[in-house]
């Protein structure tokens, strides 16, 4: 691979693999406070295979493991010999650093990020005149936003800690958030009844698609032993078409049901023959749809089972 590099990169890499050259280079170029944290005797050049393939580093990129205050970390050196300086170099460095951290986590199974200190040795013909400040790559109007966002804890919205009263202040976001918060209730029916007024308000505003999405999600994922009561509550919404709800629900459930049916069919086909296996899988799908209160005509259309056969599953 080294033969594909420029002679400048081959020359620099060759000498930077010498521990004495590397140590002197870092002592000459690292900030004083970083040097104080480093155990220079721990500097160790890593093999190319240490870097994850997704990092896409060239051989002229050198990675040294090192101890920072006794903890594992890395010194990353990019050898930049380009005919034209790259204004996006700070962003490239950020991607390399994240990839190094990611590889470290995968190989060590640790949950602590290693500190990576990056350096660029630029040996181009023209002076490098672009900023190496990542935040200078953002538009000037958003620079402070970017700096604040990328150097502060990330914004977490924890619905488990949000009160229903607070969420109910917001009709659109609030109804979605409340549904996500309560979808794991042991019985979804009481919650559904509690948001009927909000759904009626959405109904008055012509948000039919929004309401169908809410109902389909709750019917498909939520749990209740009172399926009939659930659909009776749904009917309190004036515009709701029960057949459309059922059809939409089948479409919502179909990928998971087909996945389960396909897997079951594969197993049973091996044991009993392909046709018998698929027949049993269709029956299992029909049972699952019946438990969700789906109309028999829709089940027959989805599973291709005769209605008489589906009726037998009810007994």
Description:
This protein is of the alpha+beta class and 315 residues long. The protein contains 15 helices and 4 strands. It has helices at residues 7-16, 19-29, 32-37, 89-108, 143-150, 164-167, 172-182, 189-194, 196-204, 208-221, 227-234, 242-272, 274-291, 296-303, 307-314; strands at 38-45, 61-68, 71-80, 115-122. Helix 4 (89-108) links the parallel strand 3 (71-80) and strand 4. Helix 12 runs antiparallel to helix 13 and helix 13 runs antiparallel to helix 14. Residues 54-59 have low confidence and may be disordered.
Biggest sheet character:
4 strands, mixed
Determine the mean pLDDT.
82
Q: Please mark out the parts with pLDDT under 50 across 5 or more consecutive residues, or reply none.
A: 54-59
Rounded to an integer in angstroms, the radius of gyration calculated over CA atoms is: 31 Å
Overall strand count: 4
Structural class: alpha+beta
| Overall outline | elongated
Q: What is the spatial order of strands in the main beta sheet?
A: 1-2-3-4
Portion in beta strands = 5-15%
SS element count, helices: 15
Distance between the termini: 70 Å
Into which percent range does the helicity of residues fall? Answer: 40-55%
Instruction: State the order of secondary-structure elements, H for helix, E for strand.
Output: HHHEEEHEHHHHHHHHHHH
């Amino acid at each position: 691979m080294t033969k594909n590099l420029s002679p400048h990169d081959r020359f620099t890499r060759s000498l930077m693999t010498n521990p004495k050259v590397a140590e002197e280079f870092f002592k000459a170029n690292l900030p004083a406070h970083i040097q104080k944290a480093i155990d220079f005797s721990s500097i160790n050049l890593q093999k190319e295979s240490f870097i994850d393939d997704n990092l896409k580093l060239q051989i002229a990129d050198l990675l040294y493991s090192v101890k920072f205050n006794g903890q594992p970390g890395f010194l990353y050196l990019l050898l930049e010999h380009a005919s034209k300086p790259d204004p996006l170099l700070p962003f490239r460095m950020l991607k390399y650093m994240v990839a190094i951290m990611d590889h470290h986590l995968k190989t060590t199974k640790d949950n602590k990020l290693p500190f990576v200190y990056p350096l660029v040795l630029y040996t181009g013909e023209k002076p490098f005149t672009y900023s190496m400040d990542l935040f200078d790559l953002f538009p000037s109007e958003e620079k402070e936003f970017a700096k604040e966002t990328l150097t502060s804890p990330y914004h977490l919205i924890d619905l488990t800690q949000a009160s229903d009263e607070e969420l109910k202040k917001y009709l659109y976001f609030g109804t979605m958030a409340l549904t996500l918060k309560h979808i794991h209730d042991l019985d979804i029916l009481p919650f559904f009844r509690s948001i009927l007024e909000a759904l009626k308000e959405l109904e008055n505003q012509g948000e039919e698609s929004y309401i169908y999405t809410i109902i389909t999600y709750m019917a498909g994922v939520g749990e209740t032993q009172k399926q009939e009561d659930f659909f009776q509550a749904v009917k309190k919404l004036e515009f709701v078409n029960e057949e459309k709800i059922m059809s939409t629900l089948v479409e919502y459930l179909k990928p998971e049901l087909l996945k389960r049916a396909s897997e079951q069919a594969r197993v049973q086909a091996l044991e009993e023959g392909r046709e018998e296996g698929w027949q049993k899988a269709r029956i299992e799908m029909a049972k699952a749809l019946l438990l969700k209160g789906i109309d028999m005509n829709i089940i027959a259309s989805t599973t291709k089972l005769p209605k008489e056969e589906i009726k037998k599953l009810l007994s």
